[in-house]
Each structure stands twice: as C-alpha cells, then as structure tokens.
C-alpha cells in the first residue's frame, strides 16, 4: 500500500523536475574495540565510520556547457551531531570544455585528490588520520582543469573573511570576549569588531596530477596566511604544507607512497601559543589486492614533529600500521574488518615537578629529564558498508 501511494505521488511530479537529481551516499559503521596503554579502561562501542547522504544534479545549457550542483551531508549511526547542514562538499557551478568552476563549501586538493593512500573506513588509529589531516574543506571557489592526456590541475581559494566567520561561528573564548568588550565598549556582536580582532587567514591550495596506464602522481601545496599558532609573532607566520603521492593502481593491484611536510600548522605543545614554530613530516605506504570479492590491504605510516630554528631540537615521533580486509557481499554491500596499532615515543625534555607541591620548581632550580615513555593504542573494528 505504501509503495503504491509513493508511486502515485511521484507520478504527479513533472519528470523534468526530477530527471536531473541523483540521490547517493554511503552508510557505514560497526563495532569497535580500543585499548590505550597506561589507561585501565578499554572502549567498546558501536560507532559510525563516515556515513553521508548527497543530492546532485546538472542541466545542459547547450554548446557543451552544463550547470552543476551538489548538496552533501554527514549522517551518524551513533546519533552524534554533525554540525551545520551541507557540511560536506556542497556547491553550485559550471562545467564545460574549459574545465569545472564551482563556488561553495569545497575540498582542497589534499582532501579530494591526495587521500588515495587512506582507503580505510573507521575511526582513530584504524585510519591514517595523522597523514591525511592536512586535507580540509573551505568556503570558497575551486577550479578543476580538463584532463590533457592524463595531466590536470586544480586551484582552491577561500577569502579571508570566510575564515574569520568560520572562527567566530565555533564560539569565542572568554579571553577573546573580554578583549572585545574592553576595546569596543562591549559591542562584541558587531561584525566590524570581529573583523578587527581576528587574524586574516585566506587559504590557497593548488594541486597538480598525472595518470597514465594505472600509474599516478599528485603534488599538492596549501598556504594558510597568519595561522593561529603565530600569535606570538604578531600574526606574521604563514602555515604551509607540501604533499606528494605516487603509485600504481590497475583495479587489481594498488601500491602507493606518500609524503607530507608542514610548517607552522601542527603544534601539540602549549608553547606554540607563544610563537614557537613547528615543522612536521609524515610518510605513508599502502598496498591492496583485489581477489574479486575479497580486498585485503595494509598501510604503514611514520611521522616526526620538531621545533624549528632550535639547534639539536628533539623530535616527537609516531609509527602506525593498519591491516584489514573488505569482503564484498554485493556491488553495494561489504563487510569491513580492520586492526590498527599506533605508537608515539616523545623525544623531548620535560621539567621535573616538585612532588611535594605538584608545581614546577622555581626558575633557578629547574631540573629536566628526557620523557621516554612510549604511548601505544590498539583498535579493532568489524562492520558493514552499503552504498546507494
């Protein structure tokens, strides 16, 4: 009865109104078990692994020109909030022989073109998050060139005012609120006030790629002007990241190697708020083989982080390995299983606390020791994925 009513309802809608709209997405999630050393409790839960739903369409404008649009939204099987509507790639644009030009909320080249080495579906240490964290989405414009015998490029630009809006939308800290109130007679809600205290942070991302007979290579560059951890330098430091991926993928075998290098973007230490500059480098290697319905794969990643311009600066390092297999029950549905291991061994000097007062010793009596404690985490996941 319900199907009949739906069919009758659709029959009243003009075909022209629905013919160019496509509904698509993925639902994926499952059971996770995670253990972190030096922590007594383990985590066992059912979680979402990146589910989303999307709507897209196009209209032929003639002479090879098309109007295109897309709305994409994260959904969660774990009943978790996903923020604002259309929080994945959502845009309107034009496509033709000149390439594709879009405006909206868009992935940069590190998210759209350079995540080939991270095919994992899961959370935490079962994905190459430390390697792929440089990819992001921004409100701006993006141009993708045509494919010239395997060669292509893309450019994304997000204006500085969009970045200021994104910062304020997430909420203001008490410190910023106080500064706004003291300097602007308490009228912190005014747009000019927000513009006056927030760093200019326009974003430029450029990607260049080449594909031929299964071989691929992608280079990416991103610049974020006046990154947040440059406060101590009066906002004059720019965050930069360079990336290079290359490998081979013929649909059966896949092997890829990638490298990332960033400056002034990653800072896991509070000292970064005082203007210290950090450099981070990561590499990742992924292999996969398609046996038909069975697709086993393995990834290894390694990274280092250090303070720049410091002689003999110590490094924080991590190692990560993920093994897993997808078993395709059909073209749309698959069983997913993966096991991840992550280890971080800091190589940094830390102050010894005074155990009697639980405070750092005075400046004249500071003592230091090397922090050699290894941090480790293990995680296993078993779940399902369905595409539609």
Give a written overview of the molecule:
The chain has about 400 residues and is mostly beta strands. It has a single domain, classed as Porin (Beta Barrel). It is about 15% helix and about 50% strand. The strands form three sheets. Strands 1-3-4-5-6-7-8-9-10-11-12-13-14-15-16-21 form a 16-stranded antiparallel β-barrel. A two-stranded antiparallel ribbon has the order 17-20. A two-stranded antiparallel ribbon has the order 18-19. The N terminus is likely disordered.
Per DSSP E runs of 2 or more residues, the count of β-strands stands at: 21
Mean pLDDT: 78
Cross-sheet strand order for the largest sheet:
1-3-4-5-6-7-8-9-10-11-12-13-14-15-16-21
**What oligomeric arrangement do these chains adopt?**
single chain
Treating each run of at least 4 consecutive H or I residues as one helix, how many helices? 7
| Fraction of helical residues | 10-25%
CATH class categorisation: Mainly Beta
Q: Which structural category do the helix and sheet elements fall into?
A: mainly beta
Low-confidence spans:
1-13, 165-198, 229-234, 267-275, 348-371
**Largest sheet features:** 16 strands, antiparallel, barrel
Shape field = globular
CATH superfamily: Porin
């Amino acid at each position: 009865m319900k199907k009949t009513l739906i069919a009758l309802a659709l029959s009243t809608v003009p075909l022209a109104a629905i013919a160019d709209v496509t509904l698509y997405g993925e639902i994926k999630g499952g059971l996770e078990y995670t253990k972190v050393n030096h922590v007594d409790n383990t985590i066992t839960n059912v979680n979402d692994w990146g589910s989303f739903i999307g709507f897209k369409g196009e209209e032929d404008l003639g002479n090879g020109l098309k109007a295109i649009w897309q709305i994409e939204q994260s959904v969660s099987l774990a009943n978790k909030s996903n923020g604002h509507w259309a929080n994945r790639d959502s845009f309107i644009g034009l496509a033709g022989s000149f390439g594709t030009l879009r405006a909206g909320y868009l992935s940069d080249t590190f998210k759209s073109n350079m995540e080939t080495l991270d095919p994992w579906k899961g959370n935490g240490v079962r994905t190459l998050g430390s390697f792929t964290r440089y990819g992001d989405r921004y409100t701006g414009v993006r141009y993708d060139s045509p494919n010239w015998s395997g060669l292509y490029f893309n450019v994304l630009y997000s204006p500085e005012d969009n970045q200021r809006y994104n910062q304020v939308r997430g909420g203001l800290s008490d410190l910023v609120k106080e500064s706004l109130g003291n300097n602007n007679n308490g009228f912190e809600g005014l747009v000019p006030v927000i513009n006056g205290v927030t760093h200019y942070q326009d974003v430029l991302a450029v990607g260049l790629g080449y594909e031929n007979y299964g071989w691929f290579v992608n280079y990416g560059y991103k610049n974020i002007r006046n990154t947040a951890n440059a406060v101590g330098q009066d906002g004059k430091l720019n965050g930069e990241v360079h990336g290079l991926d290359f490998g081979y993928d013929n649909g059966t075998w896949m092997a890829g190697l990638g490298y990332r290098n960033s400056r002034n973007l990653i800072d896991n230490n509070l000292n970064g708020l005082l203007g210290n500059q950090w450099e981070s480098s990561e590499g990742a290697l992924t292999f996969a083989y398609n046996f038909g319905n069975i697709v086993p794969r393995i990834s290894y990643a390694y990274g280092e982080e250090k303070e720049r311009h410091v002689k003999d600066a110590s490094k924080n390092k991590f190692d990560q390995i993920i093994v897993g297999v997808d078993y395709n029950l059909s073209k749309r549905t698959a069983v997913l299983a993966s096991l991840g291991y992550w280890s971080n061994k800091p190589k940094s000097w830390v102050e010894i606390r005074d155990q009697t007062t639980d405070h750092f010793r005075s400046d004249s009596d500071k003592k230091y020791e090397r922090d050699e404690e290894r941090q480790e985490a293990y995680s296993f996941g078993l779940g399902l994925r369905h595409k539609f």
